[in-house]
Amino acid sequence: MRIWIANHYAVPPNLGGITRHYELAREWVEEEGAEVTLWLSSFNHSRRTFVTDKDKQEIEKVPGLRLRWLWSFPHARNDARRVINMVSFAALFFLKGLFQGRPDVLIASSPHLLTGFSGWLLSKLKRCPFVFEVRDLWPDTLIKMDGLKNPWVIKALTWMESFLYRKADKIVVLTEYQRKFVQQKGIDPEKISLIPNGIVVGSWEPDPSLKSEYRRLMGVPEDHYVALYAGAHGPANALEYVVKAGEHLPDDMSIVLIGDGPEKAKLRRIVEEKGLTNVRLLDPVPKGEVYNYIQAADAGIISLADNEIFRGARPNKLFDYMFVGKPIITTVDGEVREIVEENQVGIFSGAENPEGFARAMIQLRDTSREELDAIAQRGRNYIDRAGDRKKLAHQLYDELTWVEKKAEVEAQ
After folding, report:
1. What's the pLDDT tens digit per position in 337-360?
2. Taking the model in full, what pTM does it have?
3. Which domains does the chain have, with CATH numbers?
4. Disulfide: which of 92, 138, 259, 277 matches 70 by Cβ 3.0-4.6 Å?
């Protein structure tokens, strides 16, 4: 099967960002014998810089997997330049896609909806099935997080959202909340498939001897209890409350944040103004190396803003921490909290609550070694059941095969 995947924010594992589609594509190429073209931006959203030739040379060559890098307009924050960034990627995807051979299935991933719309247009011209993946609920997220108020923009995005749901041959969602949301739009439940994020099991092996080295790289003492966050530093992540928790911690506890984003400068100012010597802000690191940092920490952090739109979030950090076997402190109520508590792998600290976060850290620090080992095992069991990317890739490939065959029958 020839598959196209378009995701403006996709990256290979050596870059910071969303590796989901690269990992799915690799699995389909190596295990299913597919030919996959991944369309992705040469402007890295996480780093706010263009991907260099050196970065590209470091990507492992996988026969059958083509990376099609598309230029998109650079931006540094959520302003008009980012809108141009989205438009430029979607437009170039459509234009360059016109001159490529026909795929058997075309997948376009949100956000944003413009990539989905370009994908649908190309699928019509190429006469192939269109699969729309929903990773973020637009325009709901923009309205509830960014305060989008322009009625014309809201009307246009709402129309486009409904249009893509109706026209897609298959809709892929990442959380149960998203499945229910799309279904409530009047979409046939049989058309919607839940394929959550996950982990490439076997892609990393623990090495306890590295703990001291990575503690040193984090700038924390060997004997400190360390809670670590690895991911985006944007308004949606509400990290200022995590940083402020440093005021309420004992002297032998530290918080480490790894990543980048528009809120990072603000977080640095908070650290400096409050004199928080127990909070470290580090630059992004490659996906494979993140696991060594997580291994060197004592707990993992999941933080999002106290907003109903995030009640249905299931971020990849959830799987990262369980994969490495670390207990989780989550500030996110809803689906993440349910998974953490039902599987007994961590603590809900309360939303946007620095003191509650500090109390959760202290509670985990005082947890027995036997219980921490049990938490690690329960996390790995969850990954095996619901977060093994190889299994999820095979499940999605079966769905794509069904979509392709259905299209062939309808065309006869």
Report:
1. 999 999 999 999 999 999 999 999
2. 0.89
3. 2-198+388-411 (3.40.50.2000), 208-386 (3.40.50.2000)
4. 92
